[in-house]
Amino acid sequence: MSPKLFKRFILLIFILLILPNLAVFSNNTAIQNHYGVNLDQNIQSERFEGYNLFIFERKSSADYEIINRTLVISDLDGNLYLKRELYTEGALANFAAEFINSTTILYGDGNGANLWNIYTNITTTLGFYGHHDYEMNYANNTYFTLKCYVIEINGTKYLFDKIVEYNQNAEIIWEKDTMDFVYISQWCPFSDMESGIADVTHSNTVFYDEDDDSIYLNLRNINTFYKINHKTGKIIWALGEYGDFIMYDLQGMKKDILFYHGHALEKISNDTFIYFDNDLHNQTDATNFHSRIMEIKINIETMTANVSWEWIAPTEYYSGWWGDADKLPNNNRLGVFGTHGHPNTDLGARIVEVTDEGNVAWNLSFAPDGSETFGAYRVERIRFAPFVSKPRIQSMSETERLVEWDIWYNFRSKTEFDGSYKIILDNKIKKEEEITFPKYWKPLTVSYVLEDLSIGEHTVEIVVMDESGHLSNETEFDDSSDILTFNVFLSKGLVVGLSVGGSVIFVATLTLIWFKIIKKKRTPKK
Fold first, then answer.
1. Alpha-carbon distance 92 to 376, whole Å?
2. pLDDT tens digit string along 221-252?
3. What pLDDT sits at residue 471?
4. Distances, alpha carbon 295 to alpha carbons 142, 144, 248, 323, in Å
């Protein structure tokens, strides 16, 4: 490489690597969103780029009156892309929201369960009401939710729950009563109450696993979650204070109770669950006040359960109720510490993303607005199209090379979706194939062998499409990492990198303008 080309190469590296990092770290500011909510941010380069889907509640701290509840999709800088004001009747814990495919959100509000297509703006009310959770059964095209009821025993009223499954006509087709396997003697020693009634179970998560037609149910007040056979209704196993597993903390110490009054149980692999431990009514230390995101790995053969990862939040994040925990494609974890207030701070709901090493990669906190405070129950990190890793080149011979990409679906789906991809070499389609996106935001690896390349520049690109036609190269997150340009030299084999020449600055500028046009085109209207 000539000295002139080498200087241009160094300049290009500076533009592509150094300047974006400077821009990221210059954003440590508080910004005002469209609702007048102050969003404190601490942005680092290790965050997983995307959007946040959540419902937040604005409440008066003077009289606790709910002012409004709003479903929003915002970017990581707090800018709003979509919003929807919701009917506020009922508890915020009944206002969960998640995408069920690439166009539609399943959410709850004071009217019960709803479907909202964000592209057509068509809303369908499903005709049933539950608490805490709505879960789609993709195998039957039905929906699970939770229903509570009161039973009087020996003059005392107790609150229990049922899992209820509804069909498309809002008819009950299956249910499971927690009284079948929970006893009054298991009621929390701190005497949990709800509207003056002994709250025994307080179910808050129902998670359906289509692989073996099973349901995972979390019972907050008895610190236990269950695996249930959907077909027979029988309990397969339980994990927690009243469970079947020998439990160990992250340090390998045996524990009688592994978590306290937790939320948002989710399966993330065949043997691992992610969970939000509120640390409310801690029976070892009631003043501990350290909520955490945790992962639990089970071994069915030995019936052991081990904490395999955790992030114990500072006291300033402590949330005695509500909460969420998700695992992101880059191995970061996203958590919601959603209460209106926390110890030692005036901040309300707090959403935080932490790395696998436990470092804060990004956080968003709701500061009070005069006498108004803000709470949030759950959050989902999403994108509007599939996305692709940087291409990887693997040497095979002098005349051919294997290029690989990892592909992910738009969000953390609980079922598999169909899609397709095209591999384009020098502006010609070389390979087209149907694919199935794995669930739980797991990657799918695809590859292509580059053969008989002539000397000079070649460009290889992959374009991925989801089931609704959204393309990976038509989003603001698609950049040069999806396009690989390289040079082939007679005696040096394959040299990977961005091509360097007199037109590189012009091409970079033109590409930037093109991506801005595509971003404007693909971003859903508010």
1. 8
2. 999 999 999 999 999 999 999 999 999 999 99
3. 95
4. 29, 24, 12, 15
